[in-house]
TrEMBL record:
SUPFAM superfamilies: BAS1536-like
UniProt name for this protein: Sporulation protein Spo0E
The organism of origin for this protein: Paenibacillus rigui
Gene Ontology terms for molecular function: protein dimerization activity
Biological-process GO terms, alphabetical: regulation of sporulation
InterPro entries in UniProt: HLH_DNA-bd_sf, Spo0E-like, Spo0E-like_sf
Pfam families: SpoOE-like
């Protein structure tokens, strides 16, 4: 649980720094990092969504 939260914060920080450095969202590294963050966020949501039967 804590691992995912730490990973989200790490990727978020890296993404912000990279966008500030490149000055654009249209960069292969930015897109790749953004996709990785999306995947982690989906996993985080799965773990925090209650199952209703």
């Amino acid at each position: 649980m804590v691992y995912l939260e730490e990973k989200i914060e790490q990727l978020r920080s890296e993404l912000i720094c990279l966008v500030e450095h490149t000055g654009t969202f249209i960069d292969s590294r930015v897109i790749s990092l953004s996709q990785e963050l999306d995947e982690i966020l989906v996993e985080f949501e799965k773990q925090h969504t209650p199952l209703y039967l």
